[in-house]
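User: Sequence in, structure out. Go.
Assistant: Echoing your sequence, followed by the structure tokens.
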Amino acid sequence: MNLIKHCIDQCWDVLQQVSDPEIPVLSVLDLGMIRGVELNQHDEIIVRLTPTYSGCPATDLLKDEITQALTAHGLTPVKVVVDLSEAWTTDWMSEAGKTKLQQYGIAPPKGDSHSCGTHVALTDGIQCPHCQSQHTKLLSEFSSTACKALYKCQDCLEPFDYFKCI
């Protein structure tokens, strides 16, 4: 196996273990925040990170955690580059990540970002992650963060967050 490919594959394996600080059941790979891993001409590992939004207060923390995780596995030197050339979208979330969200009690995004537009028209009927009922009601367009809306299930009566399609 090519040594460079092996190194890059190891990096991807380690990155699967780096959790999102807000939703710890999701990795940075589940969220699609890692846009690339490469080895430059100086044998430095370059990780391109696109935070879920450009002003994310956890960006520095994520950079540190990525560097620490790779370093702990002997993958050095590491440079994490914040890449804002393309805005993060829920389209980049993995299907496994969406399943983990639902199991965690957060309804995953419904639809593709290109069909959502710049303002998502939220409606009742988002599937409850607790009982899978679609008999749900929008309580607030914003929940604990701007990327989530607050819903309540009319069947099991549980409130839940919906990760908006962005």
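User: And one key feature?
Assistant: The CA atoms of residues 10 and 149 lie 36 Å apart.
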